[in-house]
Design goal:
By secondary structure, the protein is an alpha+beta fold. The chain has four helices and six strands, in the order ααβββααβββ. Helix 3 runs antiparallel to helix 4 (85-94).
Length: 126
């Protein structure tokens, strides 16, 4: 089974974001970046290998001014199960998030949401 297939299998089997992070770490993923507009994800592995998963959605609009408050609201709604992942992606796009970077290594595991004129960073609870 290819790494791409293993990653897809992980996404289908997890119940929470911390569970997803743990399983991605077990596959050797050190970090990944999600392009909000396209849904494309670039995974980075320990050996320097990169894997690109091309998004399968119509391009989302990204608001031109970043809002940390709207970003946090979108994150909390998703964490509480109020939104699906596609709804979350639309909400962070509306908050001005252009992409987000998940860092899965080291003591400061985190997700950094980056937009036009600002960013918001949140620790990953593992």
């Amino acid at each position: 089974m290819s790494l791409h297939d293993k990653i897809l299998e992980v996404y289908q089997s997890v119940k929470s974001y911390p569970d997803l992070v743990q399983k991605l770490i077990e596959l050797g993923i050190q970090s990944y970046t999600v392009d909000v507009a396209t849904g494309s994800i670039l995974y980075r592995l320990a050996d320097g290998e990169n894997l690109l998963h091309v998004g399968e959605v119509d391009n989302r609009s990204i608001f031109e001014r970043f809002s940390a408050d709207l970003t946090v609201m979108a994150i909390r709604d998703n964490q509480q199960g109020k939104t699906t992942y596609p709804e979350f992606m639309h909400a962070i796009g509306a908050a001005g998030v252009r992409f987000y970077e998940a860092t899965l290594t080291g003591e400061n595991k985190r997700v950094t949401y980056i937009g036009f004129g600002g960013f918001y960073e949140e620790s990953i609870p593992i």
